[in-house]
Automatic annotation (TrEMBL):
Cellular localisation: Cell membrane
One Gene Ontology term, aspect cellular component: plasma membrane
Membrane-topology descriptor: Multi-pass membrane protein
Protein name in the entry: DoxX family protein
Residue stretches spanning the membrane: 21-40, 90-115
Coiled coil: none
Source organism (scientific name): Rhodalgimonas zhirmunskyi
Keywords: Cell membrane, Membrane, Transmembrane, Transmembrane helix
Listed InterPro entries: DoxX, DoxX-like_oxidoreductase
Sequence similarity: Belongs to the DoxX family.
Location, primary (coarse class): membrane
Length: 184
């Protein structure tokens, strides 16, 4: 048994040296899987130089419906939330890709995904569709909410905890300050 454990540790122990690449891989996967999704979604929220009515329909579906689909009938609060959400949907993914303020941007994206999920569940009534909500520990790994969003949040929490990795503006800025890189 000792030989087996020694072989195991010597074989897979070398993988510890690759640990700094995990954040870089997480940023790559974010770019490959989620970047175009979030930017396409953000683009539907702008119309010319302002916010589109679709932005209000996506973020405040029930309130917008109750206002007769008239953006002017909604208050300043709704406009500020829609503007902030739209800006966040453009800015936070860009910061993650650049590796700039990555931990804060990834944590912001976690919050964004949580709000997005709650809006989908209750605002768009996805909670009434059991197949979209899904469940964990079943044989179907493709539900829209629990499975997909759970993986998104895990990916973003990896960046929140580990940072951007060796090839990032965060690392470059930290080196310019003469400070040691932040490590998890």
């Amino acid at each position: 048994m000792n030989r087996l454990l020694s072989l195991y540790y010597s074989t897979f122990g070398t993988l510890d040296k690759a640990a700094p690449l995990i954040p870089l891989l997480a940023r790559f996967l974010f770019a490959a899987i989620l970047l175009s999704y979030f930017w396409a979604s953000a683009l539907t929220k702008v119309d010319g130089v302002g916010l589109s009515s679709g932005a209000y329909a996506q973020i405040f579906p029930r309130a917008f419906e109750a206002a007769g689909y008239d953006t002017g009938a909604l208050g300043l609060f709704h406009t500020l939330v829609v503007a902030a959400g739209t800006l966040a949907e453009f800015l936070l993914p860009a910061l993650i890709i650049l590796g700039l303020f990555t931990r804060a941007a990834a944590l912001g994206m976690v919050g964004f995904v949580v709000v997005q999920t709650l809006t989908d569940l209750f605002g768009h009534r996805v909670i009434e569709e059991a197949s979209a909500l899904g469940q964990w520990f079943d044989k179907h790994p493709d539900s829209l909410i629990l499975d997909q969003r759970g993986l998104w949040i895990f990916l973003l929490l990896t960046l929140t905890i580990k940072g951007a990795g060796p090839l990032s503006l965060d690392r470059w800025l930290r080196a310019r300050q003469g400070a040691a890189p932040l490590t998890a």
